[in-house]
Design a protein that fits this description.
With 182 residues, this protein is an all-alpha fold. The protein has 10 helices and 2 strands. Among the domains are: 7-66, Multidrug-efflux Transporter Regulator, Chain: A, Domain 2 (Orthogonal Bundle); 119-182, no CATH class. It has a two-stranded antiparallel ribbon with strand order 1-2.
Amino acid sequence: MTTSYSVSQLARYCGISRTTLLYYESLGLIQSASRSDAGYRRYGDKEVARLMQICAYRDAGVPLKSIASLLDGSKKGKNSVLEQRLKELNTEIARLREQQQLLIRLLMREDKAAHSRVMNKKRWVSMLRNAGMDEAGMSRWHAVFESQAPEAHQDFLESLGLPANEIAAIRARSRSDAREQE
């Protein structure tokens, strides 16, 4: 048995407004499966799945223009759109990290950073030492991080608020250490 939803029921089920659902329909992203005898839109399981996919893409920040191609396009095309969105997010995250570090410097109080969600080099090294990691262990950790996930390693070092020249030096040393460990 196929479930049948009205506009309001489907919108509520997917956590969006009725107006948003009708807007998506006006853009051609979704269509009602049928009409009731009174002319009201009715949606079935297929439309529920499609709307949930649309909502997931919207939650990921994918523009509505791109969602149509994601829904009806090839897997390669989907990956391209999603990879572009991920690249945009990574750029935004890096920009937000810079703003976060600037605000901390403007506050000019390290104790403010201690009570925030900010991780800096001093806190990170202190945590590793308290966990029993020595210099050699930290070097191995960086070498493994750099060899297995270089972009994530870069992002992590940036998140500590390190200057670019220090990040470059750590990564170069890590690549060298990784080659020696092979």
